[in-house]
Amino acid sequence: MTDRSAPIIALDNVGKSYGIITALQGVSLSVRGGEVTCVLGDNGAGKSTLISIIAGLIRHDQGTYTVDGGPVRFNSPREALDRGIAAVYQTLALVPLLPVWRNFFLGSEILKGSGPLRRLDVRAMWEKTDAELHRMGIDLPDLDQPVGTLSGGQRQVVAIARAIHFGARVLILDEPTAALGVMQSGIVLRYIVAAAREQGIGVIFITHNPHHAYMVGDHFVVLARGEVELDAPRAELTLENLMFHMAGGAGLTTLQHELHLVPVPEAAAGSIRENAGQPRNGR
Ligand SMILES: Nc1ncnc2c1ncn2[C@@H]1O[C@H](COP(=O)(O)OP(=O)(O)OP(=O)(O)O)[C@@H](O)[C@H]1O
Ligand SMILES: [Mg+2]
Fold it and tell me: Using a 6 Å cutoff on CB, does residue 18 contact ligand 1?
């Protein structure tokens, strides 16, 4: 049993520059098993840079990145994966025309026989996929159907379940609900919570959507221009607060003033409301 109180991964003052461009600077965060950490931020805020460092796609050039308490510098996503750190990107790395069970084992196929008779163990893969999806509470009507015919939410969930089955302890989800409608987002959000609470996975949930984040998050990090604009546990944050920081925080207030969108004073707002339903000119 892993110690849920000790962070699996921790970043301390991590940064990354490309020549004179600073993509990320001074980012500290820890991810614990069983918790969902939401990373939010506008376009260009540094979200992709951050998760690429964590997942071993690029290397940081400032600060330290530790896994299970020891510093790491991954040379490839494979090295991160070997430590149980997996990323599920929006592209999902699924093959639409192949059946669900085949996608589940893509790249890690179970084989049987030996020599020239070596072939795919279809039955074993089918049964394992069935058992795993059921164990994780995912109910698909037919494992033989091509993945391309599943709904967007179901596809996400299959990709996440696959990562967990192959040993993910930390799961990075890059905008998993961005292309989904309300119902489909619900499927994915429910599954994110189940993965954390029931399987003790540490989830990093990247999103533009503060509503989605607030529904599932235990901890929130908002990035702006490569730096941490907000870092707060759920207990210290309201949804309104999170939305305010997402919208640009103090910068938004400045913009309102520049555009003369000065908030209506409370007294004036009251008199407007009182007059609202009344006929004009006394008629
Ligand atoms: N390879 C690179 N070379 C130069 N600059 C880069 C590189 N990668 C990222 N940047 C810059 O670093 C900053 C952060 O980019 P990043 O892609 O991490 O943002 P993001 O939060 O993922 O944005 P989006 O929501 O648009 O995906 C941006 O200003 C970007 O232009
Ligand atoms: Mg990005």
Answer: yes
Within a domain: residue 136? yes
Q: What is the pLDDT of residue 264?
A: 52
If you search the block for the tokens 């149980």, which residue do you land on? 84
How many A from CA of 53 to the centre of ligand 1? 12
CATH number for the domain that contains residue 59: 3.40.50.300
The three-class DSSP label of residue 235 is helix
CA-CA-CA-CA torsion sign (59, 64, 65, 71): positive
Expressed as residue numbers, the domain containing 94 is 9-247
Q: What percent of the chain has pLDDT over 70?
A: 87
How far away, in angstroms, is 43 Cα from ligand 2 center?
Answer: 7
**pLDDT tens figures, 96-136:** 898 999 888 888 888 888 888 888 888 998 999 998 888 77
| 260 falls within a domain | no
Q: Return the residue whose CA atom lies nearest to atom 1 of ligand 1.
A: 18
- Are 12 and 25 contacting, i.e. CB atoms less than 8 angstroms apart? no
- Residues with Cβ within 5 Å of ion ligand 2? 47-48
pLDDT tops 70 at residue 279: no
> Pick from 53, 90, 240, 4: which is nearest to 61 by CA?
53
255 within some domain: no
DSSP bridge partners of 10: 30, 66
Report the domain count for the chain: 1
Most distant CA atoms of the chain, gap in Å:
96
Residue 279 lies in a domain: no
Q: Does ligand 1 come within 6 angstroms of the Cβ of 41?
A: yes
Q: Which of 136-145, 250-259, 266-275 has the lowest mean pLDDT?
A: 266-275
**pTM score:** 0.82
Residues 6+ apart with CB under 8 A from 18: none
Residue nearest to atom 28 of ligand 1 (CA): 44
pLDDT (0 to 100) of residue 166: 85
